[in-house]
Write a structure and sequence with these properties.
five-stranded mixed sheet, alpha/beta
Length: about 120
């Protein structure tokens, strides 16, 4: 049995936030989101954190990821992109996420938000 272990994302861990970058043209299914979630869970365990989704590459996120694929101790989500289309998608996705949600056009502002969240 072969398992496709091709890397489709990067994560950067900080004390109270994580930056996740999904690679170009990836369709982020619930199954793929669970792989990312498991890596985050292993790092933070039950500690509260916020996630920064660095959308520097175009990709698609399945709606299920927002309803079933987010860790319970994830208290906020920031989307980072300079693209208007990403902002439009994020506004739709925000309706699927019942916690703190923010949109930034640069990573430094998102990091500042995340550092001051708790």
């Amino acid at each position: 049995m072969s398992i496709n272990c091709e890397k489709f994302y990067d994560v950067e861990f900080y004390d109270s936030f994580v930056i996740v970058t999904i690679y170009k043209d990836v369709f982020l299914t619930l199954e793929k989101a669970n792989i990312v979630r498991e890596e985050i869970r292993t790092h933070y365990k039950s500690k509260d954190f916020v996630m920064i989704s660095n959308r520097k590459f175009k990709h698609v996120v399945a709606d299920q990821v927002f309803s079933k694929g987010l860790p319970p101790n994830m208290k906020g989500l920031a989307i980072v992109s300079k693209e208007k289309t990403e902002r439009d998608k994020a506004q739709i996705q925000q309706r699927l996420f019942d916690k703190s949600f923010a949109f930034f056009d640069n990573l430094e502002d998102a990091k500042s938000w995340a550092e001051n969240y708790f």
